[in-house]
Write a structure and sequence with these properties.
Blueprint: H1 14-28, E1 37-40, H2 48-58, E2 68-72, H3 74-84, E3 92-94, E4 104-108, H4 123-141, E5 147-150, H5 155-160, H6 169-177, E6 183-188, E7 191-195, H7 202-207, H8 211-227, E8 235-238, H9 253-267, E9 272-276, H10 278-286, E10 292-295, H11 298-309, E11 314-318, E12 323-327, H12 344-357
Parallel strand pairs: 1-2, 1-5, 2-4, 3-4, 5-12, 7-10, 8-9, 8-10
Antiparallel strand pairs: 6-7, 6-11, 11-12
């Protein structure tokens, strides 16, 4: 949602533009063939295009490899390849002649590189990032692609472009799909974490810990994981306060909100336990006692995942009607354009998307 008077000339027609982009995708998708995976390149000023080009340089080819439809701008991809010191493989442009079923294709969402500079907040780059995500999401909703993988976007840049309510991917996708409840799940080998909240200040996150909110996220987690091939998932709920609140001495959220939500979920047949002290629950999950942990705020879950295995961690969005995974890092403006960005998280995100599409979450 953008307030009146803040839209720039290139944001006013976003919806109509993305509709036309989706019509272009029809020319690329072959009826009966394996649907491609959409890969958005993220903010051009960040490391997204660089890690994407590194991924392409290392990606296998052949009839058993799912096609990739890159969505962004060619100039950003070329800048990323130059920074990475790699040669771009052959990429067909969508629309264009003989694009149907090509293993690698690029849909350019427009906007040139005027004033572009690596590592700088730029409204134009923010517009490109949002336009790419919206196009990929609409292609998912239309059944033109099997799912989407996203490179990082910059919150200040999309705000500068006029998207004042779209703090991140999850908010954009919620807006586009009309989803009432969504959640972020982080995955790395041996550990999965769903977040009760993500883009909230710490004090707002604590206020969000209510019986109703927790129960909704537990239902969403159980339902989505079952769809992705993990029925009856054992869900552990992390505590909010130190030592689980010490019987109310260090806070009453465990007594007044979390324990009742766990009881409600168990009454509905969900395999939920807790609340467990946050300083031990993640290790218990790593040891195999739980399939997933419900963390109560951003850093509670993110720190656990990234300490466990930073480079292999990925993100998935729960509550939307298609598979979306992402790298588990930001735009990294401090290293953008220097040729040192690591593509492992993006490679893991692509592999995770393939697994979720095929219902193989249990194997991740």
């Amino acid at each position: 949602m953008r307030p009146q008077g803040t839209q720039t000339a290139y944001t006013r027609k976003l919806s109509s533009r993305s509709d036309s982009f989706c019509m272009m995708v029809d020319e690329y998708t072959v009826s009966g063939a394996r649907l491609p995976l959409a890969l958005t390149l993220g903010d051009p000023a960040g490391i997204g295009p660089e890690v994407a080009t590194r991924l392409l340089a290392e990606r296998a080819s052949g009839p058993d490899v799912r096609p990739l439809l890159l969505i962004g701008t060619r100039w950003a991809l070329e800048a990323g390849a130059e920074a990475a010191g790699v040669t771009l493989p052959e990429l067909v442009d969508v629309p264009g002649p003989d694009t149907a079923g090509a293993p690698l294709a690029l849909l350019d969402v427009g906007l040139g590189p005027e004033g572009f500079e690596f590592g700088r907040v730029d409204a134009r780059c923010g517009e490109i990032a949002v336009r790419s995500v919206e196009t990929a999401a609409r292609a998912c909703l239309a059944g033109q692609v099997a799912g989407m993988v996203t490179c990082p976007i910059h919150k200040e840049a999309i705000h500068a472009a006029g998207y004042v309510d779209d703090i991140g991917h999850q908010e954009i996708l919620s807006r586009l799909t009309g989803a009432d409840w969504t959640a972020t799940m982080l995955m790395t080998p041996g550990l999965r974490v769903v977040h009760l909240s993500t883009h909230k200040s710490l004090i707002e996150a604590a206020r969000y810990v209510t019986r109703d909110n927790v129960l909704h996220k537990l239902r969403l987690t159980a339902r989505t994981l079952s769809t992705w091939g993990l029925p009856g998932a054992r869900i552990a709920v992390a505590a909010l306060n130190p030592h689980g609140g010490e019987g109310g001495l260090l806070g009453r959220e465990e007594i007044d909100e979390l324990a009742p939500a766990v009881a409600d979920a168990r009454a509905e047949g969900l395999a939920v336990s807790g609340p467990w002290p946050a300083d031990s629950v993640f290790n218990r999950a790593i040891d195999g006692e739980f399939d997933v942990v419900l963390a109560l705020y951003h850093d509670q879950g993110h720190i656990a995942i990234k300490v466990h295995d930073f480079h292999a961690s990925t993100t998935a969005t729960l509550g939307i009607p298609f598979v979306r995974t992402s790298v588990d890092h930001g735009t990294a403006f401090d290293i953008a354009g220097r040729g040192v960005a690591d593509p492992r998280s993006l490679a893991a995100a692509v592999a995770a998307a393939e697994a979720l599409i095929d219902g193989r979450l249990a194997q991740l």
